[in-house]
Amino acid sequence: MGPLLILAVVLLAGSIGGKIAKRCHVPSITGNIVFGVLLALTLFRDIDVAGTLQPLSTFAISLIAVTAGGQFAFRRLHNALRRIMYISIGEVVGAVTLVTLTLYLFGLPGHLAILLGALAASTAPATTIAIIREQHAKGPFVKTLLAAVSIDSSLCILLFVFVQSLLGSFYTNGDLSLGMSEGVKQTLIQIAGSGGLGLVLGLACSRMFDSHRYHNFSVLLITVLLAQGISHLVGFSPLLTCLFLGAFLGNSSAHNEEQLDALGPIEPMLYTAFFTLAGASVHFEYLSSAGFICALYVVARMVGKGGGAYFGALISGTSKRLRTSLPFGFMPQAGVALGLVVILQGDPNVPEEVSGYVGTLVLAAVTINELLGPLCTRFALNRASESNLDKPRLVEFLDEEYIVTDLEATDRWDAIEQLTHFYSRTHKLSPKHREELLATIVEREQKGSTAIGRGAAIPHGLVESGTAIQGVLGILKDGVDFDAYDKGTVSLIVLIVTPKDHEQRHLEVLASLSAMISDDHIRTRLMTALDANDAWEVIESEESRNFNYFLETEEEPGTTTA
Questions:
Q1: What is the pTM of this model?
Q2: Residue 59 within a domain
Q3: Cα Rg, the chain, nearest whole Å
Q4: Rounded to whole angstroms, how far apart are CA atoms 113 and 102?
Q5: CATH number of domain containing 509
Q6: Who's near 2: CB < 8 A, 6+ residues apart?
């Protein structure tokens, strides 16, 4: 069978498996993997499918890494960094420590226990992203999970580079400690090299996006291929380079961040092929050869990641809804771990029987994790109540990243100026556009106070064009005088920015916010919110659903949101 026929069979079988899985209320990824295993046991029994379609798998992993890197966009994470970092570090430390100690205590040599512990740090970005899209999930839990998975993949790559140097020293000199300095050196080289290459490619990609002379799809496609190919050529980590590339595009400008979706039309096909190939590359007989150690690895990793994520969420003050759901979100493991095993098998300093044993064990573990992991991730999304939320809502522009709960101002004009600056920073406005926006807001406020009573105000400004109404929420612990009709001070300020052709929707939003704030329970919870996530929980809660309702149908251009 030629490569194109193999690819056609893989896509057909994976698509059928995915459809059947969804009908059985199982994640489609699980169906892809199961049908891949069936292909390995039948049509592909004597075919090296993974080797034949390696370029496709490599590109899929690179695209996944770019998408994961894009989750590091500062404007979306700035007020959730503490939560995300505590959770990421907690689940990585938990998995690495528990797997290493468990395997060592049950008789595995120390250097192999450390290696398998490092590989246990990674989650599967591809699986996580695919399940989130399949579940149409959206919210702080999704944002936290995606960012944490991106971080733990990066940490896993860096840990592997470090441990690989330790192993080289061990097998050359018989001493792990001699490889410490070399491990640190190689890790720093990878960070600097991959980071620099990702930055250069990101700048070039950005210039081409801005020129408007090239098709954005083609530009991003070629850039991802260059990131993968050049990294492999010069000895850098392709996954790390692609993570840096995605992070640069996600932070450089709003336009560049939007272009991360340019390859969206081919993603379903790539994911179907990737997961079906993963299934076609594993064999259940590996489970018997890996045996008891494999079972220990899987259980220790699950407990370590789940417990570490919960502990990190607990000490960071994460809400109970997120805290109790996160332990189930880090179970999948595939692309990053498998890619690092391939690198290990090509290391001349590591004996073939050692790399073969580790490869067999990790492959068996990935088989289990990729069959059970998607079910756990879907359960986590449902438990967090964020499935089927990826659709327009009337006040959807008040996401967690657009809320500030520690605003301090001397008067209403100072409050308006601070919120306008916060808006321009989170929505990446240029200084010129920021000043123009501030002028329209101040002009409207001078005509009459936008305070609506009950401690709230809704200042607003107009912009010439835009795809949707946007805004930010500021919560002041000490209220300011807003010349309100009820003579009370204002502690809740919603700043709205409306394109001129969205005036009808603007009136609906004003009415919705006014009604929401008039509810004593909702208003009190917002005014006493502990942080941005706490405030977002109120806005998206079931009790706010009558005010912040879903927009089920497309409407006329002048009234839709995006």
A1: 0.72
A2: yes
A3: 25
A4: 8
A5: 3.40.930.10
A6: none
